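Researcher: Quick test of sequence recovery. Tokens follow.
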């Protein structure tokens, strides 16, 4: 059975950035709520200062990545759109235009985020490196994914290529 997304074309990088800026706000709220829960639980267990716990930083990074990923993957699973994608008529679909599987959406999120996180962590381990340089390197790695769509013959971002998904803009109804 073949599907097609009616009147859909690859979303230009400008639309992708608009949706990303819009999605910053709900993701920030979800991550803030996660941080509040972690802080409340730690305080209840007698650790009001999380910096005293050396193992807490990796857990916070993993937890933050997970709750942000839950927002994106669950949103994409329920109609292919996040809150930031809806006003711009953007949608994540499978290559054949069908709704993307949850596995493909998890791969999409992982391919879009893990390389930047690994880059930040690896460059932060280098001795004598400027404090903010790993974050700039991570930002460059993260930007490479959507920038790939400028050169891709089908307008796909690098992580969409790896995940087997497409990011499309629906025509006006």
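Model:
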């Amino acid at each position: 059975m073949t599907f097609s997304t009616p009147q859909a074309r690859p979303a230009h990088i400008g639309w992708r950035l608009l949706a990303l800026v819009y999605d910053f706000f709900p993701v920030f709220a979800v991550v803030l709520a996660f941080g509040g829960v972690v802080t409340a639980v730690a305080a209840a267990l007698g650790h009001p200062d999380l910096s005293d716990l050396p193992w807490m930083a990796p857990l916070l990074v993993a937890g933050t990545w997970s709750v942000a990923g839950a927002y994106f993957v669950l949103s994409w699973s329920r109609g292919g759109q996040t809150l930031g994608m809806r006003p711009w008529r953007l949608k994540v679909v499978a290559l054949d235009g069908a709704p993307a599987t949850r596995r493909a959406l998890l791969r999409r999120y992982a391919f879009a985020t893990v390389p930047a996180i690994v880059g930040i962590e690896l460059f932060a381990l280098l001795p004598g490196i400027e404090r903010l340089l790993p974050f700039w390197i991570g930002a460059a790695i993260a930007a490479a994914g959507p920038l790939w769509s400028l050169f891709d013959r089908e307008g796909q971002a690098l992580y969409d290529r790896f995940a087997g998904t497409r990011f499309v803009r629906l025509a006006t109804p």
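The chain has a mean pLDDT of 91.
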